[in-house]
Amino acid sequence: MNLLVGTYNVFGMPWGSKDLRSILLWIFLQSGAEIMCLQEVWSKQHQILIRKLCEDSKTWSCYFPYSNIHRLGKWTDRFHSGSGLCILVKNTVDVIDEVEGHTYILYKGVDGLVRKGFMILHCRKEGKLFQIVNTHFQSDMTEIPFWRLRYNEIRLKQEKQLYQTVRHLSCPIVLGDFNTEEFMYFECLEKGHRWTYKDTGERLDSCLRTFQDKDKFKKLESFYHYNLRFSDHIPVLFKLEVT
Q: What's the CATH code of the domain at 223?
């Protein structure tokens, strides 16, 4: 069974400039994706817009980890979702269980303003069962030129927490903004170097699998959409064969 999945950090920080409507229309009408994992969908207004566009499309559904609402959401709708995560699913894929939302135990720096984590969606297509895992790891401080605070140790501990949860699943397909190109507990399906975050020239957005799941799915092809500049990241799609 072939499956086209993707990941896209939509640059949804309150001080960012974004065109979420155009992003959603591109996903629905042009990307060809069946599942798209979004990061930085922080605000309540963004969630309302996504729900409305999915309803209008008649073919897409959206899922949010409601257990991960951030404490700032009590005072400002801009931080309604602490995780900022959302999964879009086309009607070619069946969702067969409730959404699981998990918050990372450790974080540092500006990530303390939100509560990043991961969400799990149990899916089925053509009789094949699999789980889509959407996540957003700890970010570095890169806003000031020539100065960067790196949080590799925090990301490694987040990766371990993620692995300890998903390793028991039947076929976890992990997508997201990892803010790193290096992994210890997972295998990255992308080899070589192609950037997804222009400011640093790094491939921060990708697709992972556990080492024990090597025979459960493989990447057939990947698509980097460098022409889309709605965000500071670009969307990446992966054509997978799930066995």
A: 3.60.10.10
